[in-house]
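Hi team,

Filling in the usual template for the complex we talked about on Friday. All components are listed, including any nucleic acid strands or ligand strings, so the model treats them as one assembly.

SUBMITTER: L.P.
PURPOSE: interface mapping
COMPONENTS: two
RESIDUES: 520
SEQUENCES:
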Amino acid sequence: MADKKILVIEDDAELSELIQLRLKQNGYDVVVALRGDDGVKKAREERPDLIVMDVFLPHMDGFTALKAIRFGEKDKTGDFLKEVPVIVITGRAPMMEEMFRMEGATDFMTKPIDIKALVERIDKILKK
Amino acid sequence: MINLYRSIALQILMIEDNKDHAFLTLKMLERSFPAARIEIAETAAQAFEKVSAQPWDIILSDYNLPDKDGLSILKELKERNCDIPFVIMTGAGDEKLAVEAMQAGAYNYLVKDEVYLSTLPRVIQDAMVKHADRKERERLQQEIREKNFALERANEELKKLDQLKSEFIASVSHEFRTPLNSIRESIALISEGVVKLGDKQGDRVFEIAKNNVNRLALLIDDLLDFAKLEAGRMRMDKQQYDMLLIIQEVIDSMKGLAEKKGIKLVCQPDSSRPFIHADKSRLVQVLMNLVDNAIKFTPPGGSITVHMAAKGSQVKVAVEDTGVGIPSDHLVKIFDKFEQVRYHHPGTEIRGTGLGLAISKQIVELHGGQIWAESEAGKGSKFVFTLPTGSV
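RESULT (copied from the run log):
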């Protein structure tokens, strides 16, 4: 079976590099997007098995991006993007998780993220 | 009994239409209060005239007057907020009226019997003491009210500052953990052998760790600077410098960062070459902070201009950008400590302690200058500071 593909939408380039390395070490295929709009595009093109996304993103914020991923144009395979698990890396603002859950977020982690804990979370969701 | 008012220039107004009574009372008053100035009004109308004309220490009024009675005079004075000790004199058998007068606010009363003149000095003294006591009590009450009010306000301010401080600490600890997290992860990747130093990936991870160490160091420097400034322990090592050279130096060191983001950074000085007496490293810190902020909030393709103009004994330096601008109600607050936590740009994350402007403000002020921001929404912002020029 091919490696599961994770899309990481995170604007801190160094942090996303570290996440990528750790995920690869754990046998995942990783795609990185540094901008919100790019994340939406890559989500459609790459058909990831799971998405990890930040809230504050340049050019398109995480909230808008998630909405676009879930309820935007359908890709060729139909409702695929409605099913993909999305882990949102939130700040500390109250209500934030509630807002994201309404737009279809699957799980949450609070910043700053512990990358190893993130890997464990992904393992669990994808039942690896 | 000791006469407290013997040598005091009391202003006594007597309202009395009976000439005999007036004369006797006057003589008695002159004996008891030799320093006093005493005037007599024969009617209520005359009395009001005198009350309007000058201040009085005490009014001594007969009850029966041709135009009005003493009680009406007292009531009218009260209505006019005229707070003069008032002693009413009634004929024997009119004690009921005296009681009424006391209820209306008279300080004392005197029944005109055979011995009333001998008790007059004491009655006046009592009224004066009572009045002074009351005044003092009122003054103290007012003072307590004012102090309470000031305390309440100070308390509100402190509560607000405390709240800001808590938000600030939460935000800063978060800011500290972010680079720390990256450092920890980088070290873990290397020590677990996931990447190897010497090959491309390993060296990159090492570089990431270094970058985050620097980021953390900047945060700590900010915090330490701020703590020093707050405690008044920031030492300034001031020397004579050419302002333009300092600006050039900052522009040279920031140009790379600006160009990387596609922003033009230029200097526009006037023809003057002002010298300033300053701590160079601190002044460079201020300029770097302003230019760094401008780069952060200016989109690619924009420009940042550092203006310098000397006038009189002052040089004005302005960092102007073509960025997003600042809402007018934030222009002053952005220099307040801890406030940045609340006024960061929507949709962006706070990076850094947010103390940069508060620190810059204090540094400029320690140089005898001023700093402020000007902005029109959507038309960029301009951060201006002044410094005194010339030698010390």
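MY TAKE: Residues 161-231 of chain B form a domain with the Helix Hairpins fold (CATH 1.10.287.130). The longest strand of chain B covers residues 303-311.

Thanks, L.
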